[in-house]
Amino acid sequence: MASLLKMRAYENESPRQNISIFDVERNLEAREGLKEKELQRKQECDREVEDVVDYLAPYLALLGNPAEINKQQALQIRDDCLFDYRKLLSVRGDKIQKMLNLEKHNLSEKQKWFEENQHILTRTEKEAYSIYCSNKIFHIHTMEMRLQKHQAQFSIRCKKLENYLKNDSRLSILYK
User: Fold this and answer.
1) Labelling 138: which of 68, 127, 154, 167 has CA 20 to 30 A away?
2) Which CA distances in Å does 104 have to 21, 86, 96, 133, 136?
3) How many helices (H) and strands (E) does the chain have?
4) Which tens digits make up the pLDDT trace of 34-56?
5) Is residue 2 part of a domain?
6) Is 83 in the same domain as 169?
């Protein structure tokens, strides 16, 4: 009882207010954390700006990085670059489609297994099956959305590359 009274007297003599972690104005730690996150975000944006991809570098390297190229070489470089980029995007789309098909196949196999064995399964096994199906359906839905986005972005990305190639000074001979 005496220790309780001492603690109460101490609290009355030196009041200390608890500051919520959500009160950014008064919570110094939260404010410092926000400043640090903002700084990291800014540095990341700066890094992204610095990471400009030179799509022509591998094709020019095959020619020995000449100072100037003729019209035939420029045409070949542009066509090869566009062809390879379209091929890369197609391979990515095919990979997503294969993963989607595999997930659908795995889900259908599990559903067949469940239909055959549901009468002998325990309640926990049925719950585990339900969780498995929910996760697979989520993965399938996510991959379908990813595939749709990829397909929608295909032509947009190709147009962006075409514009990049048109604006590149090394291929300016094609557009004179």
Assistant:
1) 154
2) 45, 27, 12, 11, 8
3) 5, 0
4) 788 888 888 777 666 555 778 88
5) no
6) yes
